[in-house]
Specification:
2 copies of one chain form a homodimer. By secondary structure, chain A is an alpha+beta fold. Chain A has a domain of about 140 residues. Helix content of chain A is about 55%, strand content about 10%. Chain A has a 5-stranded mixed β-barrel. In chain A, helix 15 packs antiparallel against helix 17. Chain A starts with 7 loop residues before the first helix and ends in a 6-residue tail after the last helix. Chains A and B meet through helix 8, helix 9, helix 10, helix 11 and helix 12 of A and helix 8, helix 9, helix 10, helix 11 and helix 12 of B.
């Protein structure tokens, strides 16, 4: 009963007016991405999302995946057909290197398609999403032969991919992992062990599944310094590229989960499976980080995407459902009651979602553009700066967008009242699906620790210093733009708070590392509000320039931005206050008191 | 796999040391509630909750209720046996009037038992909870004959009860309801119509179900002024008290919901069912409010109770799960890793829950004590004051405790990482169950509107003025207690913010009612933080007095209170800032822009 329509106009506004991707025609693939081309791609993607992926979202949740006795897994009805359309449309290779069959278009454009897919059907979108992450890892760390062997079929969508990190006794702390790799005479390894929580670990969509598996080579050092990464294909690949025998990897069971029922979350058993080293021995974690960082951005996108689709359905209900009268007098006196969108608290929930989603989209695409700059720019300083930003923003995007995506899916559900709690209305599925995004690819607390414990410190704090400077420049460049003033003031204020928090951490973390940990989540949310204020200031600037067109779209954008300043940005102050209270009370109780 | 142990020591602390219920021995039933008696009752209740109700919580969720072709409904395995134990223990009548078979004990004590039941098995606790609400409504509004007919069997637990308000086209806006009541010659009515979302509408636990049904008598005025309340028993009651024929009421279907699967949420069809007027004609809504207000406190309790049980399970996992090392150096160097409770961000989630749950318990019991004062005091001024408090606090407790109960169940789930998302670990059930509490008995937005639109204004603001004065008195009475100073300062600061918000509403709501609606939820959360600050100040005072005992319990209480001041109370400022931004940006967009 839910619907989804890709917010193409909002996407175009960000791509063309805010980020002005046409200015980057020096980057490979960008010259092809004219406004017309972008429009055509977004429109086609939107059709696929609305007409193919979304209609099987609720049925996929109800039906779930089924594991058969032989270990094979069947995805819900319609998933294979939808996957074939996705594959045939060439969506998997949209931004991939043309050398391996991709179309080489900007990553920032691929990200907008990935938003659509995640909004329309999050469980479905994970299958190609994980495959793309695996392909990128092979692209970054594989030998030429490995790339030639795996990438064309993966980019064509014929084969999919997975990442295998977690074991029953180790999730976050990968140093504890036990899966063993025994070297063979032919240079391959025998992999044995059990991996859990493997998304898309086994399914019927692709002809082969290329598992990337972390394991410890016999005799390797203990801890994270002894972990290597292996390619373990489900089916061996013959010399001629055809598929051969089954490898020793199988799905032992699938998990019964809160949501994303249509994605198979597998226990994977490796029983002397043949694996091929990817990248260097004992440097597996570093290689896996390629996949994890990309996956983290993908998960951030899931948070934002679920907020968008749940918003659309909450808003549709709010315009349709008649209940009560506006506080200021009947809005539709000839009807038995007014639509509930007249009620301020219903508006509050919808405007919260809107201000978040639109700001998050601009911030997310801005970050994706930096991935393009990092990968494609010929200027080393630009590449370094882009890499700094991406490293800094990845944990913030992942944790903040998924925390808020879940909160906003809950808001949209609330708009429907009792119906929101009933399965067939589809709103509770958005909440259940969104919930996982706060957990997987590094629980959000781990993201916060990555931010304060690693990203802030890296290169003497170069990343955040450059970012703060960019904000100062934006503010000073736009002084005198009177209409932009409230946005510049909000941005300056958020920057002041974030700076103060950063200084507090610098001053207080060294004498007690727990002060950094205790403030990490508040710091992350504070930094996210700064980034959203930055995104909204950029959007407001672009909207002010276009406002003369007389299109209400731009005036609405400015109103939504004003709402962000009034109703979301004030949280910055409380995050700062909490952070500055330090670790003492938080850490004081002995463990046995819990 | 989850467990629950009633936090008896915390409950005793609130009842005996904070509220000092022994001081109220002038109220009927309180003299029986000695510390020893309280201890014995809490202990027995705790055993029932841990050993009978909780073990069928997860299985009840998995199994759900089943409706058969004849309209009968079977509850999950073990529910009937558990219900019989509950009934035989006399729990249903704990605080009910002895004239009808109750034990007449304080309501505040019954509330602690209700906390245990909701924490142990929320879906189960709803069956007796709704029955108690129906009994209270008959007690308040029934004729002597009606009371004699229904109450003894309801209080004994032999019969249960329901409330029937919602119809497909009307939930909040009861003025729209269509269920018809046609007067009969014998003084009864024929009731026809469809009610939806009827919790415990049909089941196999009790011999009879007494439905309280809102309907419109033929020819009654339109809107809420034409609504009457009727008693519609599932089975007729013969002269001798035995059960007779089936009445014309049946369960048409049960809803597939996000959670509380073990409670049957029914579509109830009334097909010329015989009903008996309860209270006055066309004054049905007022009578139903007796039930709704009590139900709202019960729902508030559900929020707090789920926070407690999810906290217990999150904390147990955090002490058990080994992953990573403390930031300050290995805490348990001889183990492969430290338990995750050493990590500040894990602590943060657990301490947030603790500071909330312990504060909420004191606040909730304090409110329940006011229900006792209202019902039992012989002093009219005391009764009025207690009624004022209850009226003011009911919407705040309902909305705040359920918003936060859900958020904290989500926090506890997060502590478990990936396992939190897996059904068998039981944490995701707490989240799904807690979610309904924000919606039913008046969605939380309606509570906020009730607060700013009705409760603040009532009797010229007498309720909040008296409450603010009580806080001032508490602060001035305790000046000079140096150890209490931070709590008094936090309380004074929260009161100042709440006062400022109240003044802002007074000044800005009259020229634009939307300003009140737009700020209603922030106002409610701000007021809740004030009440929690009040509760924590009272607890801190009691803990300081007992601290000399050397029991770490009191020191831990003070630390948790300090954590509340540092990490929760700062939100007051952002609620105030948001409220003061008014309705303009929130209400500016035309409906078609959504």
């Amino acid at each position: 009963m839910t619907t989804y329509e890709a917010p193409i106009k909002d996407m175009q506004f960000v791509l063309n007016d805010v980020l002005q991707v046409s200015k980057y025609s020096n980057l490979s693939g960008f010259a092809d991405a004219s406004e017309d081309m972008i429009a055509a791609i977004l429109e086609e993607g939107g059709k696929l999302a609305s007409n193919v992926l979304h209609p099987i979202n609720q049925s996929g949740d109800s039906e779930g995946c089924v594991r058969h006795e032989d270990g094979s897994v069947t995805t819900p009805k319609g998933f294979k057909e939808a996957y074939n359309l996705y594959k045939e449309g060439g969506w998997q290779g949209l931004s991939f290197d043309p050398e391996y069959g991709g179309q080489g278009l900007p990553y920032v454009l691929a990200v907008s398609i990935s938003e659509m897919a995640s909004a329309a059907n999050m469980a479905f979108a994970m299958y190609p999403g994980l495959a793309r992450g695996a392909a990128d890892t092979i692209y970054a760390h594989g030998t030429d032969e490995q790339k030639q062997t795996y990438l064309p079929s993966m980019i064509a969508g014929d084969w999919s991919g997975t990442m295998n990190l977690t074991e029953p006794h180790c999730g976050t702390d990968l140093g504890l992992l036990r899966t063993k790799a025994t070297p063979q005479d032919d240079g391959s390894y025998k992999i044995s062990g059990t991996k859990i929580f493997i998304s898309a670990g086994e399914h019927d969509l692709a002809d082969n599944i290329i598992h990337l598996v972390l394991a410890r080579i016999e005799g390797a050092p203990e801890g994270v310094k002894g972990i290597s990464l292996f390619i373990v294909p489900k089916f061996f690949i013959n010399e001629d590229g055809s598929l051969g025998d089954r490898n020793g990897v199988s799905c032992g069971s699938i998990e019964e989960k809160m949501g994303i029922h249509a994605n198979s979350t597998c226990v994977m058993n490796y029983d002397e499976a043949t694996g091929y080293l990817l990248g260097e021995e004992n440097k597996g974690l570093r290689a896996m980080f390629t996949m994890m960082n990309e996956a983290r951005l993908g998960v951030a996108m899931q948070g934002m995407a679920i907020s968008e689709v749940s918003y659309q359905n909450g808003a549709a209900y709010a315009k349709d459902r008649l209940q009560g009268r506006a506080l200021t007098g009947p809005a539709e006196p000839d009807k038995p009651a007014d639509p509930i969108i007249v009620h301020p608290d219903v508006r509050r929930m919808l405007m919260d979602q809107r201000a978040f989603t639109e700001g998050a989209r601009a911030w997310m695409y801005w970050s994706a553009l930096h991935a393009d700059l990092h990968n494609k720019s010929e200027d080393e300083a630009t590449r370094e700066r882009a890499d700094d930003y991406l490293g800094l923003m990845t944990p913030i995007l992942k944790a903040y967008l998924t925390d808020k995506g879940y909160a906003h899916a809950t808001n949209a559900q609330q708009v429907l009242g009792g119906h929101g709690y009933i399965h067939e209305w589809g709103m509770e599925q958005f909440v259940r699906d969104a919930r996982i995004a706060m957990i997987y690819e590094g629980a959000n607390g781990i993201q916060a620790l990555d931010l304060v414990g690693r990203k802030l410190m890296k290169d003497g704090g170069r990343a955040w210093q450059t970012y703060f400077k960019e904000i100062d420049e934006f503010i000073s460049d736009n002084q005198g733009n009177e209409d932009l003033k409230p946005f510049l003031e909000g941005l300056a204020d958020a920057k002041k708070d974030t700076e103060e928090a950063t200084q507090w951490l610098a001053a207080n973390a060294m004498n007690n590392f727990n002060n950094a940990g205790a403030g990490s989540m508040d710091y992350l949310h504070l930094f996210a509000l700064l980034s959203l204020a930055h995104a909204w200031a950029q959007m407001a600037k672009a909207a002010l320039e276009k406002q003369g067109d007389g299109d209400a779209f731009y005036a609405n954008k400015l109103t939504t931005g004003k709402y962000f300043l009034e109703r979301m940005l004030p949280d910055a102050k409380s995050h700062l206050a909490k952070l500055k209270s330090g670790a003492d009370a938080m850490m004081a109780l002995p463990a046995e008191a819990f």
